[in-house]
Amino acid sequence: MSAVLLVHAKGGPPLGHVLSRSAARAEVHLLALSALPPAVAASASTLCASVVTPTEAERSDLVPLIVARAEAVGADAVLTFSEYAVVAVAEACAALGLAGAGDAAALARDKRRMRRTWQSYGLPQPAFHPVTTRADLREAAAALPVPMLLKAAWSAGSTAHQIIASPEEADAAWRRSRETMAESAQLGFAELHVAEADAHYVVEEIVTGEASAWFDEPGWGDYVSVEGVVTDGVFRPVCVSGRMPTVEPFTERASLTPALLPTDLQGRVVGLAREAVEALGLRDCGTHTEIKLGTDGRMWLIETAARLGGAMTVPQIEEVFGLDLVGMLVDHLLGRPVDWPERALGPGEARGAAGSLVVLAVDGRGEAWRDRRVWDFPVVSEAVALSEGSTLSVVPESSLPDGSTVPVYDPVGGANTMAALCLLSAPDARTVLRDFTALVDALPTVLPPVTAPSLSTPSPSAPSQSAPQFEGAPA
Predict the structure, then answer these.
(1) 47: number of Cβ within 10 Å
(2) Of 157, 190, 205, which residue constitutes the final position of a domain?
(3) In whole angstroms, what is the distance from residue 319 CA to residue 18 CA?
(4) Residue by residue, what is the 3-state secondary structure of 273-318?
(5) Based on the domain organization, do 150 and 77 belong to the same domain?
(6) The CATH number of the domain where 201 resides is what?
(7) Do 232 and 330 fall into the same domain?
(8) Could you tell me where the beta strands, DSSP code E, fall in 360-465?
(9) Sheet of strand 3-8: strand arrangement
(10) Residues spanned by the domain of 38
(11) pLDDT single digits (tens) 337-386
C-alpha cells in the first residue's frame, strides 16, 4: 500500500475529515507540527500508521525534518492542508523528487510577491504597496487614497487586517498589527518556515464591491472563492463558493456552496481565477482563489492559496457535489488517475446546499453584542427555528466547548476571536442564506448570559487557549 506523510498544522479543513479520507487511499503517517484537536486525537492513532510530534528544536528547521520523516516512512507523497506549512512542504517535496506545489508556493503565501506577480501579468487587483517598516507604512499611507487596508503578508483568517482612515493612523495601526501577529504566533497561527515573515506587510486600496450586480437575491457578500486543484501545472476548477457579508474590517462570517451565480457570470469568475493561478505557476496542489465583485462586471483578485479551502469548504463540496477532494488529491499525488470535473460545477449540478458559519459576538448589522454570552450549541439547536429540510451541526474541533464564554470580537484579531464553527445542510443555497441570517440574529438572545465566574473562561485569542481558526482569506 502506498504511504503518505501528512504534515499537520493549524488551519485548513477539519483534521478528522482529512485523516479519514486520506487513510481510505493510503497508509498515512502524521507529522504533527501542532497539537492534535482533542476531538481527533483518539481516532488519529487508529487511522494513522504512525503519529510523530517533533520537539521545538526539531521544528526550527522544517524542511530537513519533513524530508527525514518522509524517508523514514517511505512516503510516496507528502502533503499539508495548512496555510502555515505550505511552503515548507513544497520545498520538502522538491528535495524528495515528489509531486508538490513547486517553487511558486511562496508566491501563493506572500501577499507582496503575489501582487507583484499579478501586476506583471496585468491582472485586476487593488492598488498596493509592500511594507516592512513603520517608515514604509507612512510612505504608503501618504501615497494611496484613504481609507486603505493594512494586511500581514503571511497571515490567514483576516488576522491583523486594519483599515487606516487617515495617514495619522499609520503608526498606531502598525503597532497594533505587529502585536496581533505576535499573539497569533503564540497560538500557532503563523508561518512555520519563513523566519522573517512576521515583518512583512502590504497596504492595499479598498475597492468597492457590489453583490447586487452579481446575485439576484439580497444577503450575499460581495466576493466569492473559486475552489480547484492544479495537476501537472494544469488548473482544474471545481466550483464557486459564495459568502455572506464580512464583519468589519473583512472577517469572514459564512461560506456557502454553491454560489448562486448565473452561468455566464460564474464563467467569468472562473476565468479570472484561472489566470491568477496560471500566473503564479503552481504545479500539483489544491487551490483557493478569492475574488471581489463590483459594478459593471468589474472584478479584483484578493488572493490565491496553494492548498484546498479551509474551514468546512472541502466537506461542503463533498456533500453538495459528491467529490472527495482530499482523496482525489491524494490519488493524484500518488500518480493514480483521477476523474476531475471537466469544468467548474454550479447550482445545476448541486445536490442541495451547505454552508459554514463562524460564531462571532457581532450581530447582523455588524455591531458588537450588548452583553457577554456563553456558547451552548444544544441551546442554539433547540431555540433557533430552521427551515424545513435544514440540519445544523457544530464542528467540535473548530469550536470552544459548551459553557465557554463567547470572546469579545476583536476586528484586528479577525477569526482568532471566533467561538465556534457551525455547519448547515439545506435543500438549496437560498435556504442556507435565510437560516444563517436567522441564526446570526438569534444568537445574542438565545445564548445564556454570562455569570461572573464564567468571565474567567479563556477566549480563543488568549495564549493559554487552543484556539480554533476559520480561513476565509488564505485562509
Answers:
(1) 18
(2) 205
(3) 14
(4) HHHHHHHHCCCCEEEEEEEEECHHHCEEEEEEECCCCCCCHHHHHH
(5) no
(6) 3.30.1490.20
(7) yes
(8) 391-394, 420-426
(9) 50-52, 27-32, 3-8, 77-80
(10) 3-98
(11) 999 999 999 999 999 999 999 999 999 998 999 999 999 999 999 999 99
Q: Helix count (H) and strand count (E) of the chain?
A: 13, 16
What is the C-alpha separation between 450 and 6, in angstroms, rounded? Answer: 40
Distance of CA 283 to the CA centre of its chain: 20
User: Residues, the chain, total?
Assistant: 475
User: How far does Cα 122 stand from its chain's mean position?
Assistant: 26
How many independent structural domains does the chain possess? 3
- Residue indicated by cell numbers 506523510: 5
CATH assignment at residue 9: 3.40.50.20
> Residue 321 maps to which CATH number?
3.30.470.20
Cβ pair 82, 308 in contact under 8 A: no
Q: Does the residue 235 lie in any domain?
A: yes
What is the full per-residue pLDDT of the chain (475 aa) written as tens digits? 899 999 999 989 999 999 999 999 999 999 999 999 888 988 999 999 999 999 988 888 999 999 999 999 999 999 999 999 999 999 999 999 999 999 999 999 999 999 999 999 999 999 999 999 999 999 888 888 889 999 988 887 777 788 999 999 999 998 998 888 888 777 777 778 887 777 899 999 999 999 999 999 999 999 999 999 999 999 999 999 999 999 988 889 999 999 999 999 999 999 999 999 999 999 999 999 999 999 999 999 999 999 999 999 999 999 999 999 999 999 999 999 999 999 999 999 999 999 999 999 999 998 999 999 999 999 999 999 999 999 999 999 899 999 999 999 988 877 788 999 999 999 999 999 999 999 999 999 999 999 866 554 444 333 333 344 433 333 4
Yes or no: say if 241 and 325 are a contact pair by the CB < 8 Å rule. no
3-state helix, strand, coil in the chain (%, to 5): 40, 20, 40
Whole-number Cα distances in Å, 446 to 241, 366, 380:
29, 18, 7
Q: Is the dihedral angle over the CA atoms 428, 430, 434, 439 positive or is it negative?
A: positive
Give Cα 352 to chain centroid, integer Å.
23
Outline where 334-452 has alpha helix (H): 377-383, 429-446
